[in-house]
Amino acid sequence: MFERVAIIGLGLIGGSLARALRAKHLVKEIVGCGRDVTNLERGMALGVIDRQTTNPAEAVQGADLVVLAMTLGATGEILRQIAPSLAPQALVTDVGSTKQSVVDAARATLGAAFPRFVPGHPIAGGEKSGVEASTATLFERHRVILTPVSETAPDAVEIVRRMWEATGAEVTLMEVGHHDEVLAATSHLPHLLAFALVDCLATGENGQQRGEIFDYAAGGFRDFTRIASSNPDMWRDIALANRTALTKMCTQFETTLAALKTAIAREDAATVHATFARAKKARDDYLARRGLT
Amino acid sequence: MFERVAIIGLGLIGGSLARALRAKHLVKEIVGCGRDVTNLERGMALGVIDRQTTNPAEAVQGADLVVLAMTLGATGEILRQIAPSLAPQALVTDVGSTKQSVVDAARATLGAAFPRFVPGHPIAGGEKSGVEASTATLFERHRVILTPVSETAPDAVEIVRRMWEATGAEVTLMEVGHHDEVLAATSHLPHLLAFALVDCLATGENGQQRGEIFDYAAGGFRDFTRIASSNPDMWRDIALANRTALTKMCTQFETTLAALKTAIAREDAATVHATFARAKKARDDYLARRGLT
């Protein structure tokens, strides 16, 4: 499928895509690029990549596919660095968790090459990061959302779609703004709430840290706050890149929470019960639809 | 340790305590009481209880220990029903998730027997409920908090403490109000947030149900919302019983969230990162202290 794939950012996602492309015999040569030489060397030793470089412009030379898999906050800068070195027919795609910010950066930097940029987002990940945590099966039965815009070349979208499907993923096309709203709701806002809750509990009213409160936390708390152990750098970038959709969704949530708090304070048992029961049904229904429990 | 234990409410907690007392040979006879005859018969068939009745006053006759393990909202009514039938030296304890409301109800109903009431809360549970889900090992390495008040007889506290320790639990004594604040923070508020989030997402701005938004949810969302699949009846009772501490904690959380939202809207990257990093550290530290990851 590809002669040479350049992967910028050899973390969990970039490394897993490299492994999957290799496992499916979709690529002859994989060039890994990143700032952390030790990580690149590990990628070489693990056989995840064939060549390594810390220079993005060098990495993309002669590549027919370039995958941007580094931290979201570096998108504009990396695009500026690689734009002059892209091969004429090279496809570029990315794995960023927000899409409008990436589309804006690509439009501003890629010029005539912009139609061959396919914005993408594999909804996969995990608490562990880095190339050691990568696996060839990470994307199997996971969703990948592509958000082509009016300028995007249909054949470019088709190639990127087939690539992701080959890794076992289920590909969906979505409008950019809709993607950012859906992900604000199902991913970015939950992370915001988890970070805010743990910070609120750990920092008492007087501003003192009080870790001992967690000693009485049960299993439900551990699950609920799991995403608060996510990478703060990555999530700062996501929160800021998707700030419009995220703050809007946060305001909706604040309204729901305030209504629930008022119902509790007024001992309005019927409203409290109805809210809880509606939520339980919505969650149980979504799990049932996906065959989960 | 006990001749006859009466367990009012044969669910996951009541059933597990019955099994643990039996496994440790701490009781000669266990009387199970509940409204659901089918569940009681299942408890008989499983050997969890020796006798069954739907009449609480009958259940407690001749019992030297009475355990209130039914839904929190029934506490006052059950105490009224059993008070006249308690044996003179009977101990009474409970497993309710809030303690001030239970102490108030016990003080109002038990009269001269109130000093032999030991308010308790095993921090254990699970998504599954009912006597079939019960196990003799549910409390092993879990916390049980006892919240005796000034009137509570020290020897009664000591017996209840030893009973829980025999099940493998780690017993802590705590002041009633402090218990309710700690649990509001680590359990009741997280449930409120999970219920509110799922309800907010499932109910669009126009009030229409939109379950399809969950189709793009990843594993983190499933963990984050697990507690939104909890029993709405049980959680309505808890939220209302602990409304003072819960609404206070909710207000603290709203303040933290509002500050974070403002920082995101203003693109204040430093504040956003500091909040996320503080939360991650607090959570990682608490897991490390408990030997978890």
Give a topology summary.
The structure is a homodimer of 293-residue chains.
Chain A: E1 2-8, H1 12-23, E2 27-33, H2 37-45, E3 51-53, H3 56-59, E4 65-68, H4 75-82, E5 91-94, H5 100-110, E6 117-118, E7 120-122, E8 143-146, H6 154-166, E9 170-173, H7 176-202, H8 219-224, H9 232-241, H10 243-265, H11 269-289
Parallel strand pairs in A: 1-2, 1-4, 2-3, 4-5, 5-6, 8-9
Antiparallel strand pairs in A: 7-8
Describe this structure in words.
2 copies of one chain form a homodimer. Chain A has about 290 residues and is an alpha/beta fold. The first copy, chain A, has 11 helices and 9 strands. In chain A, the strands form 2 sheets. The first copy, chain A, has a 6-stranded parallel β-sheet with strand order 3-2-1-4-5-6, with helices on both faces. A 3-stranded mixed β-sheet of chain A has the order 7-8-9, covered by helices on one side. The two termini of chain A are about 40 Å apart. The mean pLDDT of chain A is about 95. At the A-B interface, helix 7, helix 8, helix 9, helix 10 and helix 11 of A face helix 7, helix 8, helix 9, helix 10 and helix 11 of B.
